[in-house]
Amino acid sequence: MHSLAIKHLTIWQQSTPLISLDETIQGGDILSVMGPSGSGKSTLLNWLTGMLPATFHAQGQLYLGQQELTHTASHSRRLGLLYQDALLFPHLSVAGNIAFAMPKTTRKQRTDKIHHALDQVGLKGFENRSPASLSGGQQARVALLRVLLSEPKAILLDEPFSKLDSQLRHEIRELVFAQIREHKLPAIMVTHDCVDAQAAQGKIVNLGTQEYNHA
Amino acid sequence: MFNPNNVFTKVITLSPALLLALLILPVIGGLVGVLLPAFSYIPALGEIGLSMKGFSALINTAGFSDMVRLSISSAFISTLLAFSINLLLVAAYFTSPWLNRIQRLLGPVLVIPHAAAAIAISFLITPSGMIARLFSPWLSGWQSPADWLLPHDPWGISMILGLTLKELPFLLLMTLAALAQTDLATNLRAQHKMALSLGYSPVTAFFKVVLPNLYPFLRLPVLAVLAYASANVEVPLILGPNAPPTLAVAIMNWFNDVDLTLRIKASAGAIIQLLLTIGLLIVWWCGEKIIKRITQLSLVNGTRNYADKGITWFVHLLTTVIVSCVLLSLVGLILWSFAGYWRFPESLPDQLVLMHWQSAFSHMQTPIMNTLLIGFIATLAAIVLTLFTLEAEQQRGYTLSRFATIVIYLPMLIPSIAFLFGLVWFQEQINSQHALFNVIFSHLLFVVPYVFLSLANSYRRLDPRFMNLAASLGATPTKVFWQIKLPMLATPICIACALGLAVSFSQYLPTLLNGGGRINTLTTEAVALASGASRRVSAVYALVQMLLPALAFALAWFIPKLLIQNQHKGNHA
Amino acid sequence: MIRHKQPHIVICNTLCGLILLLTAPFFSIATEHSPTWQTIVNNGSNKPVYFHAWGGDPQINIYIQWLSEQVRQRYNIELHHIKLTDTSEAVSRVLAEKSAGNYDEGKVDLIWINGANFAVMAQNGLLAPNWAQSLPNFALTNPDKNPAVTLDFGVPTQGMESPWGQAALTFYYDSRAMSAPPYSLAELLTWSAQHQGRFTYPKPPDFIGVSFLKYALIGLTPESLKHLLYQPATEQSATLLLPTLWRYLDALHPNLWRKGRYFVNNSTALRRLMGDTELSLALTFSAPEVPAAVQRYDLPTSIRSYAMHDGSLSNTHFVAIPYNASHINGAKLVANFMLSIDAQAKKQQPHIWGDRTVLDLSLLSEHQAHLFTQPNPHPSSLISTVQSPALAEPHPSWVKVINHGWLMRYGAKGQ
Fold this sequence. Notes:
Chain A is an alpha/beta fold and 215 residues long. In chain A, 32% of the residues lie in helices and 27% in strands. In chain A, the strands form two sheets. A six-stranded mixed sheet of chain A has the order 6-7-8-3-9-10, with helices on both faces. The radius of gyration of chain A is 17 Å and the shape is globular. The B-C interface holds B 61-63, 66, 70, 126-128, 144-145, 147, 149, 152-155, 241-244, 258, 339-344, 353, 355-356, 359, 362-363, 517-518, 531-536 and C 58, 85, 88, 177, 196-197, 203, 257-259, 261-266, 268-269, 271-272, 275-278, 293, 296-298, 300-301, 407-408, 410-415.
């Protein structure tokens, strides 16, 4: 179990400071980052994933446990991402999408694992379906499985539930949070929805006002 | 230690420079290669003193001013016509489903090589052509073909007609492509609705609200059309006059003359052609500014309706005429390709025979193989270079500089006749004897801009979150490129391939010049046959010339569907 | 029995085969079995021959393919047809080899050639001399009575080329559009006034276009001055002879197709306009092309061919061997076979090529001569009942003068 630590981070847009943050998230905890649009939520995510556009520059470090990630390439950070859109690769099947994410194993192990995981989220037998044929909720669940089975060290959530209707939203939210806690992953959730933030039962940072609250 | 990832990243990093070098060196080298001989510097002919005698020989050529006038007028009028008709069509049908229907009707014309289109139109308007046959003798009273001046009229009317009909679908497609960019289209359509709600009639609303925001997306295509029209040789060869011909055709004839000293005059001509084309582009650009200034006030003068009804009716009529012209020339071509004896003024042949297709196919294998080979290699190279360059752009995190973008579109704007001869000279200097390689290389210059134009948008607008997601799942940039980006872009890549093939298939001058006349493709054969003995064989060649790119586009439509189907079947994890 | 007269003493170069030929005059009869010829057969067989020939006509290409099968069977010669788009390519190739110092391993063994290209090569010493008359089959052309086989556009061949075939300027017309065609230059002028826009000729420097102008020039030049046309053109002779031609054209052009403001680029375009019935009268240098085109539906069935009564411009085309050819003996064997009765008779068949033979049929047996006749002539083909005097080609230097003058006067008359 690792913690995710953001140390003395400041991000500038040209010469204007946009964000400053200093947080440590323990495994199983969820840090909620709130703020109006333009407050730098997605910039923060870009910095975390190592995809900060050239127009920004940042100072500060990112630690996963004892390992510094600040200058690690995006694909070597092993931070799982969940967006508001499921963003399933349209050219791959459900199983293909998940398999694409999984660490290299034998074909048998892969198949079993995917089968088991799909079964767990109520999508038994969906392996060969094309993403386009799934409902919104089903897509969200596949996207979650894809992240989890990639065995990430931490999870980043970008407005993960904002496109779901209220019934589904509740259900998926519980599923995601439960899985994060079960896998004891540190998580950062960017959202503008107070209900999501409350439900995460963790620390809430408001980027617009830089107020710190506890749920 | 060998790391395929690093190698790939290196290749990617180098490709924009490679692409630029590949485009800029031949063009610059080619221009130098005509600039020197233009000022009488040809060591091979013992000419080493710089002088203006090429230019004075050029100016003293009988009919020189007529050549220049013909080139300018035909290019300008045809571009203006094609552009105006395009605007009228879009304006009149902006909110109607007919816009897409017309595009679908005219779309096939887009992929037809200029040579084939010119042949089709010459069959239509020639005194013994389809139009004359339809109206004879019951209306015209002609028992034998009238001795009228179309095609090949000295004023270039046939040429203007040919160029206009061929370029209109291109401009229409470019307009619709701009309108298909969701963000732009939503805005423009919303603004158009807003104008309607303010009491503007649809056509007026289009010109006042939509056009000013749409035009920036049409500028490059229009300038490319203008540049092409001013300097191409295949349309004037098939439809234009020859006493005197257009400047570009005359230059080509001088370059190809056995009398090598004519090359000095030809090079001087190429320089004049270059100036002429650049001049036309500048005039168009100035005209654009002037019109913008003049119309500034009328945009807000409050007039809600400029004879919209009349314009709409006119556009209906125009559309009918254009679509029937296209259909009639196609029908004419097909009939000729199967025609037995077919005496004027009968509107149908006496008998239909397969003979012309059979005899054409017995001679067609080499040209078809050459066409395909050159097309495939040039397109493949263009696609790889373009994809790598776009990937480099994303990996570096910023888009290509304005300079680089201009360089990529350079071959579309600089008259090919101005630098191709220099390129040939250049290839002779570095002793590049391999005709096929030279041809492929020269095709690449013309294929790259179109492939880049068609791929860049899709590539740049691919949702970056997919890539972030894949990277967050541990996929290296190499894996993301091959396994996420390429499959997701399968459709645009296939379309770019088809476009690249179509562009390569239609190249006449580069094939002829860089291959030293030794490489025959369908297009060089079709142009040669267009002035040849048999209308019937010429029709077969023109039809095959149309079929090849059509086939490429059909495949581009079909292959991505097949791929997706297969992937879903094959992805048992 | 073939009697082979040796008209000249052969002057030989270093090649041993040719040295042996010096003995030829001592034999009154030279047959294929004569020792000299036998040496050539021995040295030429079993080797490749690179034949550089214009490849623009599929019918001719197929005939050359037949030739290569024949020489393979007879001499085991591998005959490669290098298809040229213009004969000048081969000329410049030999020239390039010469300037590169390649004097005996040239890539070109045999060239199909005549006219200006021959004149250039002969002038620059690029052709092997004095071999043509030693070919056994050459005698069949009856060279003493038939100067056309030793004169190429007025230039003596001096044994540098062997004749292959000949062509004459032939006219054809649409019999549905007129009762009788014009039979002379004078008639052409009056006919064209009555049939406005129904005749034209290709724009020089097209070969047929220039040929029409040469025919007109010969016809318009008074007998007393005609000899000037067979000498190199000078400024003086040009100013003397050409004005008549321009006056004739000035009168003719307003009556031509498109009122003479647009000229087609080549003779094939003429044929298409005849097919479209836009034209009613046209001309060609290869008469058999006309019935062949009718059979391919490219010309209407009402087309008839004929020769002008005031003469037909005629020329012979040849094959030549470059001085540095790698396979000179093999090339001679091929050239000799081209002159054989079999090869010439086959070539003259309209459905094969239709190129007129250079052999003198009166020297052949009845059976052999019969091979050259066509069983059922096509109604559109040329019937040689009417005598049309052959007009020899003027000296090649006239071509440039005529072209230049024409382009200056009519080349830029757009509007």
